Amino acid sequence: MNTQAADVAHSATRLGREELAALVASDIKAGSFVNLGIGQPTLVSNYLRPEQAVTLHTENGMLGMGPEAHGDDIDQDLINAGKIPVTELPGASYFHHADSFAMMRGGHLDVCVLGAFQVSAGGDLANWHTGAPDAIPAVGGAMDLATGAKEVYVMMSLFAKDGSAKLVQACSYPVTGVGCVTRIYTNEAVFLLGADGVQVRETFGTTLAELQDRVPVPLTAALG
Amino acid sequence: MPIIANSAAESVAGIGDNSTVLIGGFGNAGQPMELIDALLDGGATGLTVVNNNAGQGDAGLALLIKERRVRRIICSFPRQPDSWHFDAAYRAGEIELELVPQGNLAERIRAAGAGIGGFFTPTGFGTMLAEGKETRVIDGRGHVYETPIHADFALIKALTADRAGNLIYRKTARNFGPIMAAAAKASIVQVSNIVDTGGLDPEIVVTPGIYVNTIVRIPAAAPEREEARP
């Protein structure tokens, strides 16, 4: 493994949350069916272009979800998984909860985008429980999303507040799904996870060599 | 043919202590508030409740938990910014929690209504929530065995029923309604409108009347934005 000589696309500065959301949006293939998790992944919807013709799924029973509703458009019977009032787009459909998760588990969603506390080199995701003994546990649809979509993209900061990397050899937090994450979008780099290990597609305000010094898993440059 | 009850109180009068009750709704969308209020007034206690959440604010399921009528709750997402009544009951050790991934919760309810004795699902495999459960590798992928959730009663909310019990719903308020109606021995449904038999186009019926035992008409409240105007 020769990380020093690797040629990885890079930009001069680290990405902010909005720039990261725009990058994820631009990577979603036209015509995809997509579920965006609660929190940072929701920002992705602001950067999807109409010509991408992406259909958004919300696990509480809708395809064709539109933007957040405001003012007179607010309808308490039309909410997203975060219980925020939303709108419906032409071509939308409603279905019950078992159908909604069958759609997910059955591999019909192309991509889901989730936040994470940690991701392991093997694609294990930890995003539902801090492991704190006094925490009231709540899982919602996190495990179903992690397991069901064809591709699972994670959006997160690469390092925790204490400076430790959130891309790890093995998750110390309770896992949400095993071997499910295919890409990680962070403020410092984009990582591709697969049979070839963890590959770095591009870096932001850092280099592959610098990342390798701070991230405790072997990194290689993505080919092509 | 279903019974058409004259009031919410009459519709839930048969729910006794220690019953298992499926309650529809995702957050407040589709939550049958008036039926839950009537259940609270009726005094039944020791209940096992199945819902996606564990109550929000000071209404509906949250009040049932506040009054300690719920012995055990099966849900996917109890912890919310306004789930203070559940939080207090849980921290006091006065409610038992079975936490289930949301899709497994839905499929376990569906399985009960469909007469399925359980199923293997990849969701949750390798996680804390699968500990102690039977597992099997199917086509190279780990699966967890999950059991059906049967219930004595379902309390759900739909938009319109006809007198044959056929139901249609409204937008994302549909959520757990159709599968809960099928999974309970007796389903009690609050609707905004009741139309004569034949008044619903059979092509658009979502829940066929075979799953519905009791209907009660609770007129929809005026939209909040109307009330908010000076």
Plain-language structure description:
Chain B: Keywords: Transferase. Chain B: Pfam families: CoA_trans. Chain B: It comes from Arthrobacter silviterrae. Chain B: This is 3-oxoacid CoA-transferase subunit A. The complex is a heterodimer of chains A (224) and B (230). Chain A has 224 residues and is of the alpha/beta class. Helices cover 15% and strands 29% of the residues of chain A. Chain A has helices spanning 17-27, 97-105, 142-148, 208-214, and strands at residues 9-11, 33-36, 55-58, 62-68, 86-94, 111-115, 118-120, 125-126, 151-155, 167-168, 183-185, 189-194, 197-204, 219-221. In chain A, helix 2 packs parallel to helix 3. The two termini of chain A are 16 Å apart. Residues 1-5 of chain A have low confidence and may be disordered. In chain B, helix 5 packs across helix 6 (177-183). With 230 residues, chain B is an alpha/beta fold. The relative contact order of chain B is 0.18. Chain B has a domain at 17-99 and 150-219: Glutaconate Coenzyme A-transferase (3-Layer(aba) Sandwich).
Uncertain spans of chain A: 1-5
CATH class of one domain in chain B: Alpha Beta
Distance between the termini of chain B: 45 Å
Most extensive interface: pair and counts? Answer: A-B, 43 and 51 residues
- What is the number of E strands of chain A? 14
Structural class determined from secondary elements of chain B: alpha/beta
Question: Number of helical runs of chain B?
Answer: 7
CATH architecture of one domain in chain A: 3-Layer(aba) Sandwich
Give the percentage of residues in beta strands of chain B.
25-35%
Looking at CATH, the homologous superfamily of one domain in chain A is Glutaconate Coenzyme A-transferase
C-alpha Rg of chain B (nearest Å) = 18 Å
List the helices and strands of chain B in order: EHEHEHEHEHEEEEEHEEH
| Uncertain residue segments of chain B | 224-230
Number of helices of chain A: 4
Q: Averaging pLDDT over every residue of chain B, what do you get?
A: 95
- Ends distance of chain A: 16 Å
- The percent range for helix content of chain B is 10-25%
| Portion in helices of chain A | 10-25%
Structural class of chain A: alpha/beta
Largest sheet geometry of chain A: 11 strands, mixed
